[in-house]
Specification:
Elements: H1 2-34, H2 54-59, E1 64-68, E2 75-79, H3 81-85, H4 88-103, E3 110-114, E4 117-123, E5 127-130, H5 135-142
Parallel strand pairs: 2-3
Antiparallel strand pairs: 1-2, 3-4, 4-5
Length: about 140
């Protein structure tokens, strides 16, 4: 019986350093991850995730140069080269998201422009429709 107790005590002595190390790591991670080193008020306020505010979404979208929400019931979005160089599926997805957010409170369409020219739109009856490229622009890109 004393021999069993002796073996149990020796095993416990082997486990003590491991238990101490685990406890030390747990305490350090609790204190290290639990405190905030800066005030929340001084941090920049960028939208997190998908906001329901279309103007905020467009304001923080790097592909958008400007937008107009006030002249009619249509949303006019002026995009830059980054939007133009994205794949057609991504363009359609972006316009679809903008349309669904816009159409929640308005009846109009979303019209996409670049350098003042209409390049695409999303309407209730037609969905996403890219504008056909002018003939001279197609011949320049082929040659």
């Amino acid at each position: 019986m004393n021999e069993r107790i002796g073996r149990l005590v020796s095993r416990m002595n082997l486990l003590r350093p491991a238990a101490r190390a685990i406890l030390l790591v747990a305490l350090l991670s609790t204190f290290g991850c639990g405190s905030d080193s800066h005030e929340a008020g001084s941090a920049a306020n960028y939208p997190s995730g998908i906001s329901e505010d279309i103007e905020q979404q467009l304001k923080y979208d790097a592909r958008v140069d400007s937008f107009d929400t006030g002249t009619s019931d249509d949303l006019i979005v002026n995009v830059n080269e980054s939007w133009l160089s994205s794949p057609p599926g991504m363009q359609e997805r972006a316009v679809g998201q903008w349309y669904s957010m816009w159409h929640a409170n308005h009846r109009g369409a979303v019209i996409i422009k670049h350098d003042g020219n209409k390049i695409a739109s999303w309407t209730a009856d037609g969905g996403f429709k890219p504008e056909p490229k002018p003939k001279d622009a197609e011949s320049q890109s082929e040659g």
